[in-house]
Amino acid sequence: MTSNTNALELIQAVKQADSTVSLLNAVKALANARLEAGIPTLIEVLSYNNPSPAIAAVIGLVQLGEVAVLPLLNLMDDYNYGGRAWAIRALAGIADPRALETLLEAAATDFAMSVRRAAARGLGNLNWSKMLPSEVNPAQKRVFATLQLTCQDAEWVVRYATAVALQGLGSSVKLTQPDLVGDIKAQLEQMLATDADLAVRTRVQLALNKLRI
Fold first, then answer.
1. Which of 47, 62, 70, 145 is deepest in the core (most CB within 10 A)?
2. How many Å apart are CA 140 and CA 137, to the nearest integer?
3. Could you give the number of structural domains in the chain?
4. 72 and 158 part of one domain
């Protein structure tokens, strides 16, 4: 009873906040409580178009981990690109492969740069040990195919995130799919030779250096 009462009080504090400061404090309190009952409210905050509370909500959702994955997938606001971007960041932080299809679609097709960036980065960070062994290799190849698309994105921040993701994917498959590692390195080499942005090329070089160790 006490836990339920506490959850209701924390949720009400978020819903009744009348300033950014009070909202931020309420969201932090709810996030720190790590209550499953608070997940829908934390997800709702992602669509408030208020960055500080959204960051606090993302941190709270990531701390809750796997239990937040399905609510995030089911309650994501498809009509609010800011809320979508924050939700994708939360899914990327949790790194549960149940978010794979959502991340693949968002990285390749979402109109919002912030969504594509968050999704691309998340694809390189998935916890493959939580997927059936027979599904891992095909899924990793699908991730690589999508990252081949995002490395050509018009926005440099998406390409930067792709370099980070390619490094993460390459590290994940180094022992299990050496041929894929070779393909990843070749893709990074191409980015290094052709990308117009210095920041992207610098991050690509770092990824190559890490994968060569």
1. 47
2. 5
3. 2
4. no
